[in-house]
Amino acid sequence: MRSYRRRILAVPALLCALVLLVARPAEAAGDDEDTTGGHGAGGGLGLSAQVVQLYEDASRATKRYEVGRQEAEGQRAQAQRIEGLLDRERREIGVLREDLGRIARAQYRTSGGMPLTAQIILASSPEELMRGQHVFSQTNLAVNNAIEKSRRAETQLAKDEARAAAARHGLEKRNAELAELKRGIEQKLDEARWQLQGEADASVAAGSCPGAVRLDEKQKEYTGSWATPVESYELSAAFGSGGSRWANRHTGQDFAVPIGTPVRAAGDGRVAKVACAGAFGMEVVVQHTDGYYTQYAHLASVTVDQGERVDAGQWIGQSGTTGNSTGPHLHFEVRITPELGSAVDPVPWLADRGVPLG
Questions:
Q1: Do the beta carbons of residue 232 and residue 55 sit within 8 Å?
Q2: d(CA 230, CA 350)
Q3: pTM, two decimal places
Q4: How far apart are CA 290 and CA 334, in angstroms?
Q5: What is the largest CA-CA distance in the chain?
Q6: Considering only CA atoms, which of 354, 25, 338 is closest in space to residue 175?
């Protein structure tokens, strides 16, 4: 019974730590709500900056929702564990009751059913009589004590089970609030993205770039001299692939990313070209220090001007779907010259510079 007792006493301690999980998402709520207060259409931020901010807000909201979901799963597992312990205690009480019944029946069959006077007469000695009575009394007491301990354990476990259920419900309620907040941010982000795309399409149709949009970039330290043109992506159309979309073979590597995704310079260099017309739509071409050129096409905005110096990883625009494009993506091209027709495969080119594409 000592092992049962130790096991039961450990449960409340575990619960105290787990109940605190309910408060953690609530403490983060203020941050989430504050970050979305001024990002609607017509807010103080420019449209490109709004997209970037909402992009980051959505990422934070997704991470917090995922943390809350994992915590709720952990709380649910803890509640199930307590429920299992409670079931085991109930089974042990049943076994102890059966044991007590067997002892009583055995005692009745031997001498427990006879009056004490008859037991005294039939006992071979006073010592035998006292010994029999003592054994029965001690056994009866031990079983009764065990039942009482199990009952107390059952009561405590039932309380712990109720607390665990309340904690789980609290987490699930907070997760529902986080999910709603996340959906709201994503809806605002989607609206802002397509509004940004509409402005970019208008610029491309007019054949005139609106000028660089300066974004408050959160710079990252790069250990190498080269970077992927977008941070998170899925590779789509590859270099050399064919199809009705291109007059010849595909001249670059496409990265499937949402509208408004920050586009980064692959390496140090100078902006050789900024254009907003033709099949590539809004585009930037960078001349690198090793003589190669990289092109970033179908953008929704540009954040640099022609002739400007750029560093590896620096934001130079936002992805979009301008020009001859069937959906949001970045067309990334590596060229020997700044002009179309001198492209090389970007994947091994980046890999040779320590930037393998996953």
A1: no
A2: 13
A3: 0.63
A4: 12
A5: 121
A6: 25
